[in-house]
Amino acid sequence: MAIWLTENSKIIVQGMTGSEGTKHAKRMLASGAKVVGGVNARKAGTTHLDLPVFGTVKEAMDKTGADVSVVFVPPAFTKDAVKEAIDAEIPLCVVITEGVPVHDTTEFWAYCVAKGNKTRIIGPNCPGIASPGASNAGIIPADITTAGRIGLVSKSGTLTYQLMYELRDLGFSTCVGIGGDPVIGTTHIDALEAFQADPGTDAIVMIGEIGGDAEERAAAYIEQHVTKPVVAYVAGFTAPEGKTMGHAGAIVSGSAGTAQAKKEALEKVGVRVGKTPSETARLMREIMQSR
To answer: Is 247 a catalytic residue?
Structure first.
């Protein structure tokens, strides 16, 4: 089992004919994912990577039965690309693009809600989603872990990969990189809810980072709704106070948003929190081996 992305998922790539879209479409295909076409209005009717290129997301869905879109378009055009996917009512839209203006993300997220929330948006500024052994939509390397029964949700791309690798012998049901921007389509809570409901997931790894209150809200949700064991890591324990770090969302205001505050909120509801990624992997290993 997996969440949102399965072996039957049919993927189209918005921006497949560009350099990044080409590179990662090739990787998705090599991993066994069912990539069935691309979307580029200027190149509609041509082929690329031996796949058809369509003029619109709607046309691609009608011709191929696609139910997932991965967006590899420049930041200036991302808003329109995602709104097109929402109009077509594709069930899952994975927005890889980094540097999307927060105003644009806010606009296409509000547009999605106004249209009835028929499209799940993951991202932007994320590595995507992978269900090892089944499918891969985005830029997550397909060969660093195996299929298993751990669910992973993470703000950080590289920490997603590290935890996948460190727990590769145990394996994962689905790994979701939600992105680190201040406004994102899918949150920790969304993933926690899906993993809690997934019979193929026995335990959950949650990776957060300094800034905002997403992890504190996730802790409150875990307390009320999650019965499966959760381990967590919060990036930024050594970040200097008062300095804006890395991701656009990693802004600490006073004591709110610090790694320590997030750690305390999570531990208060029974989540075991590692001080390093490797310690976090060890905590999950202990849980899985005791089951």
So the answer is: yes
